[in-house]
Amino acid sequence: MKKMLPLLRAALCVCLIFGAANALAQQAFDPMRPAPNPLTPIMSAPQSATAETATDPDLGDLPIGVGAEDTYYQCIACHSTAIIRQQELTDARWDYLWGWMVEEQGMYEPDDEIKDTIMEYLKTHFSSER
Amino acid sequence: MSEVIPSETGTDSDTASVEKPARRAFLKNTGLTAVGAYVGMNIPLGANLAAFAQGMDEANIMSTKEGLVLLNDRPINAETPAHLLDDDVTPYKHFFIRNNGGVPSTALDMDAEGWTLTIDGEVDTPLELTLADLQENFEVVTLRLVLECGGNGRAFFNPGASGNQWTTGAVGCADWTGVRLSDVLQAAGVKDSAVYTGHYGNDPHLSGDPEKVAISRGVPIEKALEQDAIIAWEMNGEPVPAIHGFPLRLIIPGYPGSVSQKYLTRIWVRDQVHDGSKMAGYSYRLPAYPVAPGTEVPEEDMVVMTDMPVKSLITFPQSGTQTSAGEATEVRGHAWAGSGDIASVDVSIDFGQTWIPARLDPAKNKFAWQRFRADLTLPQAGYYEVWARATDMNGLAQPPVVPGWNPRGYGNNMQHRIALIAT
Fold first, then answer.
1. ipTM of this predicted structure
2. Do residues B419 and B320 lie in contact, with contact meaning Cβ atoms separated by under 8 Å?
3. How do residues B114-157 score in pLDDT, each as one tens digit?
4. Domain total of chain A
5. Where does chain B hold its CATH 2.60.40.650 domain(s)?
6. Is residue B158 predicted with pLDDT exceeding 70?
7. CA–CA separation, B254 and B305 (whole Å)
């Protein structure tokens, strides 16, 4: 029985996917199926947020949500949204980065309300914590 | 992640696999007209026209590259898939791009008219050298040197570290021609008070503020005076291309690539550790002690990163390739280390349970990457992974997992792995 389990599981999968009994023989083991890059699973997923959330092509493909527009116009003064969309950071790192951009990189600092909106947006969509 | 990150406009999203038609279109639309507009430009015979076209726009740079994965389009940052790094000498089209600022117009125009390099600070005689001065007054050398971004492998840290999420491809090894940095520094006369170098280029800061410096890093004076560091004006026998630092750049091998200043205009010899842009804070720094993943390390406990760790990359075959079970197949790649030469490379087809010694070629010169090869026989049909593990002359080997987490995700030298399918 122990030996049968993987076979049963494979058969179940095949049936679910193809619903065809005669596919079982070929699909039970298919060495020709596309192989994953073995490094992929252990990577953090910088686009995991955007995978679930619709993005706005007019806002540099940032995920649609409260603060997207403020974030877009604040950030693209210096860099493209491509660097934002790669991030998956702790809240503390986002707080640090904001200060670094203002103090070291010459970023214009908006009023507190806009700042809070942007930080909330970044910590929601590009977070390692949620 | 093997997908291309689309650009803001979506128009460059195909740059990761620039096909020949796109390339031809670029030559037709931009390269040739630009060349025509600048009569008198001496284009080396057989040179990549696109790469050396004058008047290039920054947005066109990716069309002169082939197969790179674009991580960021402003500033431009792009990495090379492992299987495109199989050449002993990485060609221009496959050389990764790491830019901190914009590409200066002098580089885009390939205009070196009046270019000078200043050597000042803790020296007996400050120098202002033209390109001709460098070419005529110092011994010209060509060295094969690895250039690797300090953040190569950042994508594998968890929690994530800020910056471009390089996987394995922020590395390349080219033939660089120029003069030894040590010869130039010694011509100026390095004072006993010299501690560090500080490098400057003319690349504009992203904010557009002309007072701000995009990046200005340096190395301990002892490192600068070693024989391997050069001031280069040629890459692979051609003028250093726009995106790689035309007309002059430093190559200081073994350290994070950021010390190898592009668009080089000045080397300031300092009487203290250089405090230029991206020397302080968390940039190119590591915690002074081991920290748990996600730790907020106080800034004062961060220390400047020096030697890059020992590393290797499997460049052939491409991950996911099929091979015949029971028959020997060649697996090959490169190994390199910030400490110098490689002692050995081993490969495994059983997830690191047993290791097979690879054949290792000697380095062409110190800090060139070294070719390794192994003939592997996969015993039966199925899924295999090939892992590679290089060991440096100090006996340090690559770890199987991501080494010490750090806030900016530097120095990840975990073993590279590819999938092989035996049929």
1. 0.82
2. yes
3. 999 999 999 999 999 999 999 999 999 999 999 999 999 999 99
4. 2
5. 311-422
6. yes
7. 11
Q: Is A30 on the interface with B (CB under 8 A)?
A: no
> Do A100 and A59 belong to one domain?
yes
Kindly state whether residue A113 falls inside one of the protein's structural domains: yes
Q: Confirm whether A43 is domain-assigned.
A: no
Q: Which of residues 51-110 of A touch B (CB under 8 A)?
A: 57, 60-61, 76-83, 85-90, 92-93, 96-97, 100, 104-107
Looking at the domain B311-422, which fold is it?
Answer: Immunoglobulin-like (2.60.40)
Query: What are the strands, taking DSSP E only, across B62-132?
Result: 69-73, 76-79, 97-98, 116-121, 127-130
Confidence bin at B54 (pLDDT 50/70/90)? low
Q: pLDDT for A33-86, tens place per residue?
A: 666 788 874 555 544 444 567 999 999 999 999 999 999 999 999 999 999 999
Chain A interface test: which of B4, B8, B423 (most A C-beta within 10 Å): B8
Residues 307-326 of B with CB under 8 A from A: 319-320, 322
Q: Do B207 and A78 touch (CB under 8 A)?
A: yes
Which residue has 């990495």 as its token pair?
A: B79
Full residue range of the structural domain in which residue A96 is found: 48-125
Judged by a CB distance cut-off of 8 A, whether residue B16 touches chain A is no
| Segment among A4-13, B56-65, B314-323 with least mean pLDDT | A4-13
- Same domain flag for A87 and A119: yes
Q: Does B167 contact A47 at a Cβ distance shorter than 8 Å?
A: no
Are residue A27 and residue A71 in the same domain, yes or no? no
* Binary contact (B7, A82; C-beta < 8 A): yes
C-alpha–C-alpha distance, residues B354 and B336, integer Å: 22
Say yes or no for a CB contact (<8 Å) between B162 and A82: no
pLDDT per position as a tens digit, B256-296: 999 999 999 999 999 999 999 999 999 999 999 999 999 99
B72:A86 CB<8 A: yes
Kind plus residue range of the DSSP H or E element containing B266 = strand B264-270
Residues 67-86 of B with CB under 8 A from A: 70-75
| Contact criterion met (CB < 8 Å) for B161 and A89 | yes
The dihedrals phi and psi of A42, each to the nearest 5 degrees, come to -90, -5
- Contact flag A31-B383 (C-beta cutoff 8 Å): yes
Residues of B in contact with A63 (CB under 8 A): none
Buried/exposed code over B49-81 (b: 16+ C-beta within 10 A; e: otherwise) = bbbbbbbbebbbbbbbbbbbbbbbbbbbbbbbb
Dump pLDDT digits (tens) for B303-353: 999 999 999 999 999 999 999 999 999 999 999 999 999 999 999 999 999
**Cα B171-B391-B220 angle, rounded to 5 deg:** 60
Q: Examine the domain organization and report whether A70 and A107 are in the same domain.
A: yes
**What is B116-304's CATH topology?**
Sulfite Oxidase; Chain A, domain 2 (3.90.420)
- Choose, out of A29, A32, A43, A76, the residue to mutate when testing the contact with B (most B CBs < 10 Å): A43
- Judge contact between B97 and B243, C-beta under 8 A: yes
Chain B interface includes A47 (CB < 8 A)? yes
Instruction: Show the tokens assigned to B289.
Output: 């002690």
Residue A20 counted as domain residue = yes
